[in-house]
Design goal:
heterodimer, A: 471 residues, five-stranded mixed β-sheet, four-stranded antiparallel β-sheet, B: 271 residues, alpha+beta, 4 helices, 41% strand
Chain lengths: 471, 271
């Protein structure tokens, strides 16, 4: 695998200007002070109860995501570029989803295969021909970004359903401010604390019928959901009600919330519940998490659901590979943030290339997730590669392939001291009826194990505070 | 044939139900094989019915009941003029391209048994989609016997129906749609009524798409393409999406009657 770019020391080993002050500080602070602060951070996380559960683990207890106290730094010019690219990407995602559920111009133009839309489990026929309030489908997007050198940021994944992680972004900053106030006095760090205000302003702007004080609620599947902490955290920060399905009901195609003072009309629902469970009268009939009749109120235009129903049609691996074409088609612009180069095995010349370069590539199932059913060429042995080759030839439509990327690294406090670890970044993009809002930074995830590229929290990944430095 | 239909559904709710929301798929639409002369819906509560068209072109109505709700009765009745079109269904409202009906659902998801069944049929050897569909209908009719039983009860999955070799019409139809989709032929579930000799029942069958004809209705349980005895109510990806009433209730009872208006005798069938 190629050598990874380190965001602090750069390619030539010299400390990059944005990290100079931090590096000096790091080398001046004794190790035991750092360790002490790390323990303190862990103590605070535990006390406020920011934990997550890993599904499918036996005896799974709520776990703490490791927090690394060394911040990641992004410069203002880098961020400005990123933000522009993110805004462009989300704009195209929204136009694509609107098109898919209306006239399907992109299919008529032959830009992507029909079955990728119609056979996609996330395509919701129920949304066909339906307009959503303000014509915006993805109001809250999380776009995963990786970096490979000083100038190259790739989009690794689009999350257009219910992206999570923003509570970590906010908590990380709060803890850093508490533990290292001195660092903030020597760096001009762009704030992220206004995310809650931005989110509330975005949600209010999406009310289907305007008005000054639309009633916004957050709909959670309940305390057993792995992201429940985040749901309650956001409700608290936004000052809105956190509700479960049974707290809401539909009457005359209007959604109401049960309160001690009687029913109260609901205008905007920030739902953290999958499409399948939203309304047992339309989707899964066995869902007890949703609200019977919700879709009728939604279709009547009396309530806004964020994100809209059916946005998943835009964020799977197969559609991802078409994003550059999607951006060009709707915006007539070149993508500002490139995709990781992707070979679609459904196409004969791509398949030929992939078969010839299997040892160097990562091959993934189109609908797979969580790292199952995939081949990591560089770390696979000959037998595994040959076995995978057969699978690939038998059903090429089901696979895509990508090069093995050398994700950038950031200094991280580990057992042995400060050492480079691989990172990614998930910024959150809010699209309201008035404007697009992005707080500078996002959630940086870090693979705590040496050499590991897996940043997922369920696989031992941690998080870092992300600093965008004002010039 | 002119058929008069009366369909009465009583839904019981949990004792402490405070509000209930209901969606009805109980309004047939006209097409070349059937003309709706008159059709009314009635509910025994003080609710306003909101009519709309769903994603599949069906007419539905939604309404809500203020609690405490105990039972709720819905009556759909009207007169329909039907004619035999040898199963070809034309003049329907289509909002989605046929390719959408290649999607499998939880009910139609093909397992090993259906894969083997379709493979054994070797449908590709048949010259055209129409003959493939006919072969499929015959094969399913032979493989799965239509049994007694409530057509609107919890439908079997397609795989379970094939393994049990016995299913009600609402269980046979998913098997047909599942197998047809697996063979690359768009197919969908149909709910409706079957009226014969003064006896009316709710009925489930399937429609499949053959490019040269359009949609064709196959009733595998009876081993025939839909006739003038079939009254088509609504279509969807599976039996769940076309369940006549959808509500979060306890249980429901249905009574369907059908008769030819000029004869006065009225037989009733419970389903």
């Amino acid at each position: 695998m190629p050598h990874a770019f380190d965001e602090m020391t750069g390619a030539d080993g010299a400390v990059r200007p944005a990290y100079e002050t931090l590096q000096q500080w790091l080398s001046s602070v004794p190790r035991d002070v750092l360790d002490h602060r790390r323990k303190e951070a862990e103590y605070i996380f535990r006390r406020i109860g920011i934990t997550f559960a890993v599904y499918g683990e036996q005896n799974s207890q709520e776990r703490l995501i490791p927090f690394d106290i060394v911040p990641r730094i992004i410069t203002q010019p880098e961020w400005t570029r990123l933000a522009k690219g993110l805004e462009q990407r989300v704009k195209a995602l929204n136009m694509y989803i609107r098109d898919i559920y209306s006239t399907r111009e992109i299919l008529r133009a032959g830009k992507l295969p029909e079955e990728m839309v119609f056979q996609n489990p996330a395509f919701r026929p129920e949304m066909n021909g339906r307009r959503v309030p303000h014509d915006i489908h993805v109001h809250i997007a999380g776009i995963d970004i990786v970096r490979t050198d000083p100038d190259t940021f790739y989009v690794l994944e689009d999350n257009a359903r219910t992206p999570s992680g923003v509570s970590y972004m906010l908590e990380n900053r709060e803890i850093m401010l508490r533990l290292f106030p001195e660092l903030f006095s020597i760096h001009k760090v762009a704030p992220v604390e206004n995310y809650a205000d931005n989110l509330l302003a975005t949600l209010r702007s999406l009310s289907p019928h305007g008005g000054h004080e639309p009633n916004v609620v957050i709909l959670t599947p309940g305390i057993y959901n792995s992201a429940y902490y985040e749901h309650s955290f956001l409700a608290d920060k936004l000052g809105v009600e956190l509700v479960e399905g049974r707290d809401l009901f539909v009457k005359d195609e209007t959604v109401f919330m049960r309160t001690t003072e009687g029913p109260k009309r609901v205008d905007v629902i920030y739902r953290r519940l999958d499409d399948d469970f939203l309304d047992p009268l339309v989707f899964r009939p066995d869902s007890v998490l949703g609200v019977p009749g919700l879709m009728s109120a939604y279709h009547a235009g009396n309530v806004t659901l964020t994100n809209a129903v059916g946005t998943g049609v835009a964020d799977d691996k197969a559609v991802y590979s078409y994003m550059p074409e999607i951006i060009r088609f709707y915006l007539h612009e070149e993508p500002l943030l490139p995709n990781v180069p992707t070979w679609r095995c459904r196409e004969a010349d791509h398949l030929k290339y992939v078969l010839e370069h299997l040892p160097d590539l990562v091959v993934k199932e189109v609908h797979g997730s969580g790292g199952y059913g995939m081949l990591v060429g560089p770390s696979a042995d000959r037998a595994q590669i040959e076995k995978f080759r057969e699978k690939l030839i038998a059903d090429p439509n089901n696979f895509i392939a990508q090069p093995t990327l050398a994700l950038s690294t950031c200094p991280t406090l580990v057992e042995q001291g400060i050492a480079p670890r691989h990172v990614d970044l998930r910024p959150f993009i809010l699209s309201g009826s008035d404007k697009v809002r992005i707080v500078p930074g996002g959630l940086t995830r870090v693979a705590m194990k040496e050499g590991s590229l897996v940043v997922n929290s369920s696989q031992g990944g941690g998080t870092k505070d992300t600093w965008v430095l004002d010039a | 044939m002119r058929v008069r239909i009366r369909h009465e559904i009583t839904q019981s709710f949990e004792p402490d139900t405070r509000n209930a929301a209901v969606t009805l798929h109980l309004s047939p639409r006209s097409h070349e094989g059937q003309f709706i002369q008159r059709w009314v819906l009635d509910v025994d509560c003080d609710s306003r019915l909101y009519g709309h068209e769903d994603a599949f072109g069906n007419l539905c109505h939604t309404f809500s009941v203020d609690g405490p709700a105990d039972t709720l009765t819905v009556i759909a009745q009207g007169e329909v003029e039907t004619r035999d079109t040898t199963g070809v269904v034309r003049g329907t409202v289509e909002r989605l391209p046929p390719e959408v009906y290649l999607r499998q659902t939880e009910l139609t998801h093909p397992g090993e048994a259906i894969h083997a069944f379709v493979e054994e049929l070797d449908l590709k050897a048949r010259p055209d989609p129409l003959s493939r569909l006919h072969a499929l209908m015959v094969a399913i009719h032979e493989a799965v016997r239509e049994g007694e039983g409530p057509a609107v009860a919890e439908p079997l999955t397609a795989e379970a129906a094939l393994e049990a070799k016995l299913a009600c019409a609402a269980g046979i139809s998913p098997l047909f749609t599942s197998a047809a989709r697996l063979a690359g032929l768009p197919a969908r579930h149909v709910s409706g009524y079957f009226a014969l000799d003064e006896v009316g029942t709710t009925r489930h069958w399937a429609e499949a798409y053959a490019p040269e004809f359009g949609w064709i209705a196959f009733d595998s349980g009876k081993n025939l393409c839909a006739t003038e005895n079939h009254v088509r109510l609504s279509v969807g990806l599976d039996a769940v999406s076309v369940a006549p009433p959808r509500a979060m209730g306890l249980r429901q009872q249905e009574v369907v009657s059908a008769l030819e208006p000029r004869r006065q005798a009225q037989n009733q069938a419970q389903s």
